[in-house]
Amino acid sequence: NWAMWYVIELADYVKRSGDKSLADLAKERVYELIHFFRQYLNEFGLLEKLDRWVFVEWSMANKFVQDVNFPSNMLYAGMLRAAGQLYGDNALRAQAETVLETVRDMAYDGTFFIDNAIRGEDGKLHLTRNRTETCQYYAFYFQAATPDTHSDLWNRLITEFGPHRAELGLWPEIHPSNAFIGNYLRLDLLASQGLHSQCLE
């Protein structure tokens, strides 16, 4: 799943530099990558049972990567959106929004986003109760949630999570983020909302 970040970084490079030549050179590789992931799509249009190494973060988040990992699917939507922007591909943009809508409907339990679902012996997907801080940051980073659509969760993350959560004993059932990549995503999200003092803290 980590290869998907390449497409997101490529789109970010073009946005920052205005230089599209690298993206043009990478177009065939990007579409090959998108094609590669199609073999893993399930009946809901989500990636399921990715094989080899599935990396979310150096934390408990990486214990919950099967069978359907919602952070990986948020990242997948981010990749599709980035490719759609790079190459003017509206079909990829639409697919990205469909993936996010499905994740939103399936994974949000009313309080937090759940990390994964397991395919049972009955052939159905069953949501786990695994919830990580990092999954919440993936949700906001890739716009499965926004401060407007999920204001309660956003306010909880900015007021009750962060560097003092453990010592205050808040939400002990939500596995904490590590530096890579959850805390980086938190920093980026805080900065995007102008919460610079919290970034410094």
Characterization of the model:
This protein has a 3-stranded antiparallel sheet. Helix content is 54%, strand content 4%. It has helices spanning 4-17, 21-37, 70-87, 90-107, 133-141, 151-160, 165-168, 179-192, 196-200; strands at 68-69, 116-119, 125-127. Helix 1 runs antiparallel to helix 2 (21-37) and helix 1 packs across helix 3. The longest helix has 18 residues, at 70-87.
The gist of it:
By secondary structure, this protein is mostly helical.
Task: Name its key features.
mainly alpha; globular
Average pLDDT score: 96
Largest sheet: 3 strands, antiparallel
Radius of gyration in whole Å, from Cα? 17 Å
Beta-strand residue percentage: under 5%
What is the string of SSEs from the N terminus onward?
HHEHHEEHHHHH
Number of helices: 9
Which ranges are low-confidence, i.e. pLDDT below 50, for 5 or more consecutive residues? none
Q: How far apart lie the N and C ends?
A: 31 Å
The assigned structural class equals mainly alpha
Helix content: 40-55%
SSE topology sketch:
Elements: H1 4-17, H2 21-37, E1 68-69, H3 70-87, H4 90-107, E2 116-119, E3 125-127, H5 133-141, H6 151-160, H7 165-168, H8 179-192, H9 196-200
Antiparallel strand pairs: 1-2, 2-3
